[in-house]
Amino acid sequence: MGLALLFGLFFFGLLTGMPVAFAxxxxxxxxxxxxxxxxxxxxxxxxxxxxxxxxxxIPFFIFAGELMMQGGIAGRLVRLASYAVGxxxxxxxIVNVASSMLFGGISGSAVADTSALGSILMPVMKEKGYDPDxxxxxxxxxxxxxxxxxxxxxxxxxxxxxxGVSVSxxxxxxxxxxxxxxLCLGLVAYVVAVKRGYPAETFPGFKSLAxxxxxxxxxxxxAVIIVGGVLSGVMTVTESGAFGAIWAILVTVFVYRELxxxxxxxxxxxxxxxxxxxxxxxxxxxxxxxxxxxYRVPDLLATAVTGISDNPIVILLLLNLVLLGxxxxxxxxxxxxxxxxxxxxxxxxxxxxxxxxxxxxxxxLGLGLCTPPVGACxxxxxxxxxxxxxxxxxxxxxxYLAIFGALMLVTYVPAxxxxxxxxxx
Amino acid sequence: MGPVERALDLLAKGCVGVAGTGLVVLVAIFGWLVWGRYVxxxxxxxxxxxxxxxxxxxxxxxxxxxxxxxSHLSIEFIREMLPSVLRVxxxxxxxxxxxxxxxxLFWQGWTLAQSLWPRRVPMLGVTEGLRAVxxxxxxxxxxxxxxxxxxxxxxxxx
Amino acid sequence: ETxxxxxxxxxxxxxxxxxxxFAEDVATATEGRIEPQVYPGGVLGAQPDAIxxxxxxxxxxxxxxxxxMGEIVPATNVLSLPFIFRDVDHMHAAMDGEIGQxxxxxxxxxxxxxxxxxDSGSRSFYNTKKPIMTPADMDGLKFRVMSNxxxxxxxxxxxxxxxxxAYGEVYQSLKTGVIDGAENNYPSFESSNHYEVAKxxxxxxxxxxxxxxxxxxxxxxxxxxxxxxxxxxxxxxAAEEQRQLWAERSDASRAQVSEAGVEINEVxxxxxxxxxxxxxxxxxxxxxxxxxxxxxxxQAVE
Lengths: 425, 158, 302
Ligand code: NA
Ligand code: NA
Fold this sequence. Notes:
heterotrimer, B: 80% helix, C: alpha/beta, globular, binds sodium ion, DctM (chain A), TRAP_DctM (chain A), TRAP transporter large permease protein (chain A), transmembrane transporter activity (chain A)
């Protein structure tokens, strides 16, 4: 009953056109009053939902992305990318996927990846005649690579929740599925681009390519600092995000000399807006999740799943569908912590390695980040791309299918996730 | 732009200004952290906690400004597809919902700030209450901005 | 009546297993009048939030560590002093006796009724560089500590470089050299997988921090004296079970990390580490003169 009220209020709030963050908050208030729980606990969740250290990387990546955009780095990067692979049909879509593999693979946060890459690539894609919905679709779905390809904070969360799963194995296990997923997305991006007749630019010659490379190099260093800082171990993800922003300021002020005071202010203002939108959503969603946890929603669903069938193939499919459903309405980190202890025994009972399940969980909940009604990446992508959510979602299904296809392969063919960790022994 | 609208607009811009300064400070102190840890081999231990505080201020001040500029994420397409006999009441309900949530946010933020006040933020010594203050501010501003939008809607109709 | 029971540890951890026995015992003994329901893994929030929830009556039972409790009940900061307990037996002797009662009284004033005391093991330093034999070996090494002035002072006094950092960042930071080491007990060292990257574990036993099974005072006062007695008995039994399970788990974790190639060493002169803590104690007593007697009394417990 309380659960029905909670979801009823939430969906009704959405229907009225209230901002999603506020609809979540208001539904939570209703739920707390109905349960007779002290209201301040809900708001304590609102507050602690954003007082999370790893979330600090989000404003940094958003800000670095904005600076790169305002200060002329993005333009030079994209010129390089389009010289290099623009000769393919829908080249920028493929560039988007490929850069997500690199960028998001290092950031570990799909949301940060969406905002950083999206703010760089989406304006250029639109300029080159790509439809905004396509730009959003590619950016949002490819950002899931950020959670699957190591390093990934969410994987560490899973390892802790699973109690005794090796993080390094988990990291290695994510590589092949992450690349597989990006290949599927790249293929879809190509097919859709061909169907829509997006331009394939002429190859400008190796000299132009070389020049554009040199010109883009100082800007490229921003990515190198962020990527290299983490991989070489010089800095944490959060630190390298901040350092990337500082580097972006230095390059755009002293090398490209394009970042005027006005543009700097514009970058700050846009970053504040985007950061606030995302974080407010995280805040109220964590209060909402608190009630879902109290109602033991994942428990109820797990019981239902195992009650339906004892065929492993069917159970795995059902588990995936349940996770997809939960991922649509709940926050990824909370879901990892809640569902891991419940679902892991079920899949281990079916003979699945916890490592493989970890990778499945990342891909599955990652897809949830791209789906309405609650999909942080989708929201951020739509904000950055200036596209309404319904416009984006109308044409996103081939991209969902690509991720889902990769997810099915990883679920039913253990070799995709287990071969590399197996080599470690 | 009437005087009330101008005042509220200034208020929203002020929020963005403070939040933006917070963002720049956030980047700067992390630069200081990296410098301290790697060059001076002496990690400034206050950075982590200051950063967590700043993020809350950026979120709620930026969030309040977002209410004024109506830049929060919402799903309006369903409402806009409906006939006006449904659409108009739904729009009013959205505003009422925002107003109620704003008031509750203010009230709860205030309560939380009071209950957290005696506690200290570890490593900093400032009061934990500072974490909840921006929530109260955001709630109050949300209510005020929504009220203005409701009045504007009502007067525009007649 | 359902009693929501909060725990930070995941399912299968000694604390959670013991809390589940507690839940079962209470439900049976009170013939269903009280039914504790365990929410493991911190799904209802981190400890500071959970304490507030308990004080507001939204959750009835909590398994709290006394480390972060200091923010709310200052007297419990004494338990975060390095080397306040000589060993786990000393901690048991103190907490199960009159000293434990004094902490219970302090907690009770904050609306928290402590029923029994669990273990969280003893914490030691581990790092990626070398075995630590003397405080001098810590010179210049960056150690992650929990965000608490006492732990920062502890590492700084030993000559290390204290680095407060979120727990989730530690693995990667160790791996990549952002920090050189951290400190924890065997089960956490093992389950966090930090042993994969930090190959030296040096037994300093610098922190032995008890945990409680606590009930909200508002809930407790609404419970009949007979049921209170039954709940208290179950909590004491659960704490005994947890201590037993914890010891087993600790041995198993030690064996596992040792098998994985971690070099475990005793320090050369434990006294040298304790002596280095004198400025930490002096500063603490200066700031909390009223707690000096409590410190002396704990140290006097045999
Ligand atoms: Na992308
Ligand atoms: Na990505």
